[in-house]
Amino acid sequence: MEAKHVIVKSVLDAWNSRIEAANKLFESFTDEDLQKEVSPGRNRGVYLLGHLALVHDKMLPLLNFEAQQYAHLEEAFLNKPDKSVELPAVKEVRAIWKNANAKLSEHFNKLSPEEWFQKHSAVSAEDFVKEPHRNRLNVVMGRINHMQYHIGQVALIKK
Asked: Is-above-0.90 flag for pTM?
């Protein structure tokens, strides 16, 4: 197997593993559990779920796949802190999470290893020549770390 294939497979395996772990964790909580703060005065589980869902939704245009689907929820989950804006019902946030990840998976499965090393939409062609590491695969690696951080927070919710 060519080095690019191995690298892409390794990153996508890590992504899928973290998605699976996040799904298992979020499914282990009731809707009421996700209304709890991860610690006193901190974000609630539903906010973190929505935050991750919106970050993943924003990956669609960033990776040059398709338009973002939930831009109308950026205020609630990306631009404002938890409890400053009314959030959608937990059931709806769970559906957004699943849909955003399903869309990403659909697109991920269509890319060739070479396409993973193409630039993402937030880097100019000129900058990409100087910094070829600013590619689609690098975005996914960063989002894996971001997801793992917030999964660790959500795990603090006690049943």
From this structure: yes
Is the distance from CB of 68 to CB of 57 less than 8 angstroms?
yes
Task: Please give the Cα distance from 10 to 123 (Å, whole number).
Answer: 24
- Distance between CA atoms of residues 8 and 125, nearest Å: 22
Low-confidence ranges of the chain (pLDDT < 70): 159
Other Cβ atoms within 10 Å of 17 Cβ, number:
12
Integer-rounded Cα radius of gyration of the chain: 17
Domains along the chain with CATH numbers: 3-154 (1.20.120.450)
pLDDT tens sequence across 33-49 = 999 999 999 999 999 99
Amino acid identity at 67: A
